């Protein structure tokens, strides 16, 4: 037992952070992003809402998340992510409990859209990525790949659990139970998340070796950390410096477009499957299958990011996004059950790889110091479109009786996004680099 404890202590602390934040994000985002799709129709029926109006609830959360991402990223850069994550998790937990008392459309918008959206966006988006980025450089892609793969595992587990809970109780009780689970997990944030980077704790990124005489001097450790980052051709940009680069704006355009597709299809997946005659149980299993295929693509996408030049990272992202367009096109052309499986599998592989690749690309291009602010502002541009996309898909269904037009538009947009990524080039190092 003693030897086992000693072995655990030798594990670099950053890996504990990766595992914990991955599991926690899987529980939170899995429920909000995938679990909601399971009881989407039940909630709409009980509150007497159309699909477009029901979609607005999630749209508000995505819009608010975009607006909140920039200040959340700034707070994580300025004060560290630990307490930002803790407060956000507590807010989400209490808000999910409040869903048990929602009886009107405005209460639904307030609780699901604003409060739960605020809590998750504050705790499990930019701030979590900032945490992992802080602790890794050479193995950053692997770390992000593992974290996002664990989120995928959480999503796979969440869908059948939520399907079962809704079946034996209702959507209100399901929200109550999930809120209690998140509140119980909040204290562990204070254990597994640090407020600053490894240099402040006598460590180097990736757990790289450091002379014992340096560990007690924070300034020396910060300087050694900057040297270590420079050995991997990583330069620190301030937010203002990143803002002025062509690469930043092309990434913004590409991922704003990608957000439209992800947000537009996401919460409508379960209703879409049941609308074409698939049972709710089978639809839940098919959604879990889609999420399952995000797991290997998230892991290997991150792994590959560590082994290719930063110049080629955007091309890898473009390939990942094209897979989703192919999947959508296969269903639109053939409209058979096998084509639905192709659509879901390729969508899982595509969405799984693109997210870790984006965060790694931003960090490789612009460094660690201002990552929270840079990524936060990128997400702020995504916010309005995250609100409009699911509402648009719901409106298309309400007016035409199917999602065909919406899916066609989404496939075209994915191709446009891929073209933008192919135009991205690494920015030139600034004349006055920021200090990490």
Q: What integer is the average pLDDT?
A: 89
Shape, please? globular
Helicity level: over 70%
Q: Which architecture would the CATH scheme give at its second level?
A: Up-down Bundle
Low-confidence stretches: none
Q: The CATH topology is what?
A: Growth Hormone, Chain: A
Q: Over the alpha carbons, how many angstroms does the gyration radius reach? A: 21 Å
Gist?
The chain has 436 residues and is mostly helical.
Provide an overview of this structure.
The protein is mainly α. The model has no long low-confidence stretch (mean pLDDT 89). The chain contains 18 helices and no strands. It is 78% helix and 0% strand. It has one domain: MFS general substrate transporter like domains (Growth Hormone, Chain: A), CATH 1.20.1250.20. Helix 14 (294-305) packs parallel to helix 16.
């Amino acid at each position: 037992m003693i030897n086992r404890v000693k072995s655990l202590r030798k594990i670099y602390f950053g890996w504990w952070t990766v595992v914990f934040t991955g599991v926690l994000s899987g529980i939170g985002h899995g429920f909000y992003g995938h679990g909601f799709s399971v009881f989407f129709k039940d909630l709409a029926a009980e509150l007497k809402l159309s699909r477009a109006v029901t979609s607005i609830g999630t749209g508000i959360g995505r819009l608010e998340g975009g607006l909140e991402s920039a200040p959340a990223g700034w707070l994580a850069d300025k004060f560290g992510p630990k307490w930002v994550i803790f407060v956000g998790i507590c807010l989400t937990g209490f808000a999910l409990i409040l869903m048990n008392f929602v009886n009107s459309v405005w209460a639904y918008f307030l609780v699901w859209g604003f409060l739960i959206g605020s809590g998750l966006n504050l705790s499990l988006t930019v701030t979590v990525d900032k945490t992992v980025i802080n602790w890794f450089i050479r193995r950053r892609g692997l770390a992000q790949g593992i974290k996002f793969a664990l989120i995928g595992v959480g999503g796979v587990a969440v869908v059948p659990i939520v399907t079962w809970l809704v079946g034996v109780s209702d959507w209100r009780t399901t929200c109550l139970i999930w809120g209690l689970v998140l509140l119980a997990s909040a204290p562990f944030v204070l254990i597994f998340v640090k407020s600053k980077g490894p240099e402040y704790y006598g460590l180097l990124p990736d757990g790289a070796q450091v002379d014992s005489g340096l560990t007690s001097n924070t300034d020396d450790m910060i300087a050694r950390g900057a040297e270590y980052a420079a050995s991997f051709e990583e330069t620190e940009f301030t937010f203002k410096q990143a803002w002025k680069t062509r690469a930043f704006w092309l990434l913004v355009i590409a991922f704003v477009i990608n957000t439209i597709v992800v947000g537009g299809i996401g919460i409508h997946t379960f209703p879409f499957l049941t609308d074409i005659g698939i049972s709710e149980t089978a639809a839940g299993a098919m959604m879990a299958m889609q999420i399952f295929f995000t797991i290997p693509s998230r892991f290997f996408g991150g792994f590959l990011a560590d082994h290719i030049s930063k110049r080629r990272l955007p091309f890898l992202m473009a390939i990942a996004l094209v897979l989703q367009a192919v999947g959508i096109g296969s269903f639109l052309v053939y409209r058979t059950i096998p084509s639905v499986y192709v659509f879901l599998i390729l969508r899982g592989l595509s969405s799984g790889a693109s997210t870790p690749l984006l965060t790694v690309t931003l960090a490789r291009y612009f460094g660690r110091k201002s990552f929270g602010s840079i990524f936060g502002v990128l997400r702020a541009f995504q916010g309005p479109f995250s609100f409009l996309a699911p509402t648009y898909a719901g409106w298309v269904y309400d007016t035409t009786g199917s999602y065909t037009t919406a899916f066609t538009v989404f496939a075209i947009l994915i191709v446009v996004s891929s073209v933008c990524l192919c135009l991205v080039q690494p920015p030139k190092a600034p004349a006055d680099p920021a200090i990490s």
